[in-house]
Design brief:
With about 280 residues, this protein is α/β, with parallel strands linked by helices. It contains 10 helices and 10 strands. It binds NADP nicotinamide-adenine-dinucleotide phosphate (NAP).
């Protein structure tokens, strides 16, 4: 079965919209601040999708764009938003240009406004299973597994990729839910063999057709996080046409994990606001 990420994201957004409307009646408003370094067409598309969803739900969307900024300029904006009560969540759209270290910059975000869950403080809490703000993509994957009744307990999960944004947090979240998790990365030698054993295979690499049908067990659940834009076409990591015949459940690209990432980011903004209110 092909997972309908858009439909599930719309369902989540409908709930968030109601919640935001209720909160607004009580005088509470919500704001997401986005820092975008211009020049990456894919980033501009992702930011426009975030704007669309935020506005649909009723969350204020504040975009600041920079062209070729020095680190200090980005940090200055982050520090300004840390003190600004109309901004409840701040994100820096990745990737940044090569000369900027994204995680050094992101670390200036107040952890209570770190709705991408990428500051050292939130990553550390994640390891201890006590984070309030998890990165949105792993949260989106959990939403998919819940919606499609996939119980991860005692299941063998293989994750391709170990980034702070996706691979690492989803591996920790699923381990904490009782899955037996193996992580592959660029140095792993026998990925095909490891993947063939997976009940649930999650690929978060960014290499089209990395996951081929011979790497997938019959009946496996396949979650494709990868997004690579070539000549304007968005591709996942998975050879979808051939793998879909073997998988019991599979996410398409586009229309799979992406919409859930955006919906879960909005969930985080609402959660962050509540955390800030209770301070
Ligand atoms: P990243 O930071 O570049 O991490 C990529 C990971 O893949 C690294 O851990 C790398 O290993 C690993 N890798 C590289 N080649 C591999 C191979 N042959 N086999 C197994 N692992 C390999 O990227 P990211 O931020 O995690 O994003 C991953 C992909 O997901 C990208 O395409 C990105 O655009 C996409 N993405 C999509 C969404 C969404 O909402 N759909 C959200 C976030 C990201 P090393 O650690 O050894 O280098």
């Amino acid at each position: 079965m092909i997972i309908d990420g858009k439909k599930l994201a719309n369902k989540i957004a409908t709930g968030l919209k109601k919640e935001v409307a209720k909160e607004k009646e009580k005088g509470n408003s919500f704001g997401l601040g986005v820092i975008l370094v211009k020049g990456n067409p894919a980033s501009e598309i992702y930011v426009s999708k975030k704007r669309e969803r935020a506005e649909d739900i009723g969350i204020g969307f504040y975009l600041t764009e920079f062209e070729n900024p020095a680190k200090e300029i980005l940090v200055g904006k982050i520090l300004e938003w840390n003190k600004d009560s109309k901004i409840n969540g701040t994100i820096v759209q990745l990737p940044l240009s090569e000369q900027l270290n994204p995680y050094e910059i992101i670390n200036y975000i107040d952890p209570k406004k770190d709705v991408d869950g990428l500051t050292d403080e939130n990553q550390k809490s994640l390891e201890n299973d006590e984070s309030d703000l998890y990165p949105a993509t792993p949260l989106g994957i959990l939403e998919i597994l819940k919606e499609y009744d996939v119980d991860v307990k005692n299941k063998k999960v293989v994750i391709m990729g170990r980034s702070k944004l996706v691979g690492k947090p989803i591996s920790l979240l699923l381990k904490n839910k009782g899955a037996s998790v193996e992580v592959c990365h660029s140095q792993t030698g026998n990925t095909a063999e490891v993947c063939r054993d997976a009940d649930i295979l999650i690929s978060a690499v960014g290499k089209p057709n990395l996951v081929t049908a011979d790497m997938v067990k019959d009946g496996a659940v396949v979650i494709d996080v990868g997004t690579t834009r070539t000549d304007g076409v968005l591709k996942g990591d998975v050879d979808f046409e051939n793998v879909k015949n073997k998988a019991s459940l599979i996410t398409p690209v586009p229309g799979g994990v992406g919409p859930l990432t955006v919906a879960c980011l909005m969930k985080n903004v609402i959660k962050a606001k509540k955390m800030q209110n209770s301070d």
